[in-house]
Amino acid sequence: MVKSARSPATRPGLSSAELAVTRHLLIHGPSTRQDLGDHLNLSYASTSRLARALVDGGMASEALVPETAIGRPRQVLTAVPAARHVVGCKLTADTAYGVVCDMLGTVRATARMALPKPDARGTVPFAAAVTVIARLVGRLARRVPAIDGIGLAVGGVVARRAIVTEGTFLGWRDVDLATPVAEHTGLPVIVTNDVTALAREQLWFGAGRTHSTFGVVTVGAGLGFGVVREGIAVEELIDNGHLLAHAPVDPRGPRCRLGHPGCVAAYLNREDIEDHAGRALGRPVTFDEIVGASDAGDPAATDLISGAARALGHLVATFAGALQSTCVVLAGEDVAALTASPAMNEAVADRLRPGPHEVQRCALDIVATPLTFTDWARGAAVVGIQHVLGVV
After folding, report:
1. Whether the predicted pLDDT of 6 surpasses 90
2. What is the mean pLDDT of residues 354-367?
3. Region label for 366, one of left (φ > 0), alpha (ψ between -120 and 50) or beta (otherwise)
């Protein structure tokens, strides 16, 4: 059981109106009562009552700020970041990466622990992994006054914010991860797909500040997809992104592991890229080595990176068109190398080029955010913050 100076169970819950105000303050920053009322369609009396309740509950602070010209000082309400702390944990095939964040998603401490080695079937022992997660939470709990909840992110399919239906890199199938972690720690737990966690993090602290609908694409050990529509993150994709990952790009291109010629995955899955390069060179080669060779001017490596970047450009344009959004967030370990290639922007620009009689023009806002495992864990923590605050 995680020991805490304050028990989350004793904290009063937020009403829907208090949650709306808190969410606005976290996403948009300090605000006057008048501005809050205008944005949330609340009367001044209601806004004042909510402000008092949040200040009394320690969720916000309020100060008088003088006007720049002659006039009455304004009462400015500000969220108190330290009012809640949540642990976020990203599980890979061999490591649990953890962070503890405040309400603004600011990372206050990090830690990581090795997961148990997979068994003969390639499955990470579940009970032992839960023990590792609980120990990691306990280690991070010592860095802040109290822990209010836990967000866990895994690659694969997650149901009901608790069940790992398919743990791609862990070998898990239909396991309830939330319940045993909650029993070990005494804290509320939410489990999410790792890319969905990034989408929910972007909704509050990234692209969602200016776009109510956007897509997230992660490129690294695998391809991942997240969707936010009208301010709501889609929790479960119908296919875990399979249809987009295997969309055709060039029928003359290399084959993916499922045998599709020239699909998106054939160009962007790291293992596929490494396999194609290894066969050409007659020896094993890593993605980083391919990038290094391309940077050094090797034409074969440059062709591989350009082909992948071009496929990513087509994927971005297709995804944006399907969502009818002008924003796509690109994230993951391999994004920096691909977005640095001119081929990606050239592919997007070509797809955006209108016909001679078309008057409507479109511009895409492509946000590139290369990620470390700490960033993945922070996404899980933000989902945990939303969970303990009562966001549905």
Report:
1. no
2. 86
3. beta
Domains 8-82 and 212-325+334-370 share a fold: no
d(CA 11, CA 33): 25
With H, G, I as helix, E, B as strand and everything else as coil, classify residue 94: coil
Find which of 39-53, 95-109, 282-296, 342-356 is predicted with most confidence, using mean pLDDT: 95-109
End-to-end CA distance of the chain: 26
Q: How many residues does this entry show for the chain?
A: 392
Predicted pLDDT of residue 9: 47
Rounded CA separation 327/6 (Å): 41
CATH class of 212-325+334-370: alpha beta
Element (H, E) at 357: none
Q: Is 16 exposed, middle or buried (0-12, 13-18, 19+ CB in 10 A)?
A: exposed
Place of tokens 């964040």: 101
Contacts of 299 (CB under 8 A, 6+ apart): none
Run of H or E residues at 195:
helix 194-205
3-state SS assignment for residue 340: coil
Q: Are 262 and 272 in contact (CB under 8 A)?
A: no
Could you state, in order of their start, the residue ranges of all structural domains in the chain? Answer: 8-82, 84-201+374-389, 212-325+334-370
Compute the distance between CA of residue 64 and CA of residue 361 in angstroms, rounded to an integer. 46
CA-to-CA distance for 331 and 390, rounded, in angstroms? 27
Cα angle value 339/202/241 (rounded, 5°) = 65
Instruction: Let me know if domain 8-82 sits in CATH 3.40.50.300.
Output: no
Contact (Cβ atoms closer than 8 angstroms) between residue 199 and residue 383: no
* Domain 84-201+374-389: which CATH number of 3.40.50.720, 3.30.420.40, 2.70.70.10, 3.30.450.20: 3.30.420.40
Could you read off the pLDDT of 14-45 as tens digits, one per residue? Answer: 899 999 999 999 999 999 998 999 999 999 89
113 near 151, Cβ under 8 Å?
Answer: no
